[in-house]
Amino acid sequence: VGTNGTGKSSIPLVIEEALFNKNSKGIKKADIQNRAYNKGYNIFLDFSVETKPYRVEVRRSRGSIKVKLFSGKEDISSHTATNTYKTLEGILGLDFKTFSQLVYQSTSASLQFLTATDANRKKFLVDLFGVDEYTKYYDVFRDITKGITTELNELTGTSNTIVKWLCDNKLSNTTLLSKLNLPENSDEDEKALRSLTVDFENIRQKNQKINENNTYRQLLLNISPADFTLTGKEEDGIQSYDDIMADIGANKRIVQDSVKEIAHLESLEEECPTCHQKVNPGVIQNLKNQSQARSQRAESEVVHDEVVVARIKRLNSIIENKEKKQREFEDLFTRVDYELPSTVLDGEELKGKIDELKSSINRTKAQLREIIDENTQREQHNTRIQVILEQTGEFEKELEGVKESLLEQEKVATNLEVLKRSFSTNGLVAYKLENLVKELEDLANEYLAELSDGRFNINFVVANDKLNVDLSDNGSSVDILALSSGELARVNTATLIAIRKLMSSISKSRINVLFLDEVLNVLDEMGREKLVEVLLAEEGLNTYIVSHGWTHPLLEKIEVVKENNISRLE
């Protein structure tokens, strides 16, 4: 007992934190520590499992946690707090959700067994009573079945592949074909062809030379000796006219100078511009006449010399043409082979023999290629038959082995299927659970009869993966959610005590402590008396009834006192 805020309800919360590192109220770690001191917290909890003592020490400070677990004096803690709590859960044999529902009940947090879904209700009992061992076997057989199924699928796939191959490659004819003989070699014909070809090529080349020689002869006949024979002055050879050209140039300059001189004389007036003396017109005229005479003589000589140069050029051109003709004549004369005949040789007969030999050789080669191709096809045909016959034997032998393995694995799969069904939730689990549920139903109704004066009766029905609950009030069916707070507290408490009692006899999980937090507030005086009477009759169960001040003469009183923001038990 204790007043508000002394920490009565914190006791089961501390136990939950110590054993599972969580609490059923969902309080954050920062809010669990003492509000006034805010220095973290230490929890030391001693408990025993089947007379074996254990101790858990929890130290939390500034967000970090250190957990130590002892079995007697031996430290069995793991490297991390998480793994240590896993070890602790294995020792207790209960998970947090189950533990909290079996240990702590209040008006706001009560046993959810009756109000849970049918499937979750059944799962709760399966886990609680250790029937999950059967489902573990089911999981083992299911995993083995998966492996066997995979192997069966592989064997079936292999069998189908082999059968398909045997059907696709079934031989209707297994006769091996012999190779055809090759035709006689055409080496002799090819040698004769090469010899005739050489002869024909020689004739062709010789006829080409004759034709070229005849061309040179004809060109030589087109040139006459008179075309290149020098006569008269031509015999003197090529003449130079460089001196004459020099005279022509000198006379042309005389003409130009005379023209300039006459123009100068004509430009003079009565007085000389240089000496300023009077000019004699007679002298000027005499000078002009002399200059004109020189110009006329020079022009006459230029005309004469140009005629001479033209005559020399014509003569030189004739000489050059005759010399060119002579060179052509001499070149053609050296090219003409007078020993060659002028008539070309006839190679048609030789060409006919060559064509005939070529045709014969080509026919032989074509026949050879056809026979080689045919022999290649026959060899491929024979190889395919031999390979298929060899592989057919191997595949047939392999198929026999696959069929034997299939029969063996199918037998194993059949046995596994039987085991799966036996250990499934509808097999041994359902059978075992149905018997346990019957016992639970009888126990719950015993407690209900005492707590409700025989008003309420509960009935459990196992159906497949569900556990249905039928509650009746004086024979009339009633929904669990339609009960009043006091009625629900009686039904929940009766069911909880029944579950715990059944657990103590069959399960590995045995919890000897129960907290009923403010549950009495919703019960009338008669209900409280009945509850105390029932709880006192339970052996091995330490029940803590939490209230603000209610006491009972038959119950031991523990008071929670708070001084200087620190609570203690008295």
From TrEMBL:
SUPFAM superfamilies: P-loop containing nucleoside triphosphate hydrolases. Residues 312-374 form a coiled coil. The keyword Coiled coil applies. Signal peptide: none annotated. Keywords: Coiled coil. This is Rad50/SbcC-type AAA domain-containing protein.
